[in-house]
Amino acid sequence: MQKSSIRRGAMVVAAVSVTAMVMTGCQPGDSSEGGADVSSTAPTATDSSTSSPASSGSTGASGSTGSSGSTDTAAKPCAATALKATAYQAADRPAGTGTGAAVVQFTNTGAKACVLQGHPTVAGAANGSPELNVPLQVTPVGSASPVKLAPGGQAWLKLTFVQVQGEGDGYCESGSAPVVYPTMVIGLPGAGAHQVALDDGQFAECDGTLTATAVSATKPS
User: Number of C-alpha atoms within 13 angstroms, CB side, residue 42?
Assistant: First the structure.
């Protein structure tokens, strides 16, 4: 009688153990309902290399390099406040007594690299009255490529005017009167407008027309 009771007790304990094991086996990791799937939290090396924006764009960068710049043009356009513009008379200019040609130099005064690109707009400045500026007719020369400027880097463009002839006030071959501007306003796409004065005189030109190169990493003569 005692042995029968022990046998029944052992069978009950075994049944309970089996039930517990079955119940435990029905819960695979406790992560299928609202938990983190550990297998999906870390991408494979292949996924990382094919989806990285840096890797997909690193071979497509192109453009010229400003002084102290790099060949990578993946930078934002230069803000007007990050540029200093100056101008001087070009050494290679048409014969005559006016300005003939001028080089405009842009220096990145900001803390980050930035990009310049394009041909300029040019206007004779009415000092203190921007609404009275006189737009000049610009004929673009050459193609425009992006130029990346490192902090302190420089880029240039060249303006070639219809030259003033003769002495004194001079004359224009077209018969119009020469015009003199103490300063001019030079605009670049996405980089604002910059008022510049020649470092050795005033801008004297004829007919209100000129040619202009695009901003470049190479200093013109």
Answer: 3
Q: Does the predicted model carry a pTM greater than 0.90?
A: no
pLDDT tens-digit readout, 114-140: 999 999 999 999 877 888 999 999 999
DSSP state of 12: H
pLDDT tens digits for range 33-56: 333 333 333 333 333 333 333 333
Rounded Cα distance, 131 and 79, in Å: 22
Element (H, E) at 55: helix 53-57
E runs forming strands in the chain: 64-65, 83-89, 101-108, 114-116, 121-124, 134-135, 137-141, 147-149, 154-162, 179-181, 183-188, 192-197, 203-213
Tokens of 105: 């130099």
CA 176 to each of CA 165, 171, 172, 207: distance values in angstroms, whole numbers, following the listed order: 11, 7, 6, 7
The Cα angle at residue 151 between residues 150 and 154, in degrees rounded to 5: 70
Spatial distance between the Cα atoms of 124 and 210, rounded to a whole number of angstroms: 12
What is the rounded CA–CA span in Å between residue 137 and residue 149?
28
Q: What is the Cα–Cα distance from 121 to 51, expressed in whole angstroms?
A: 41
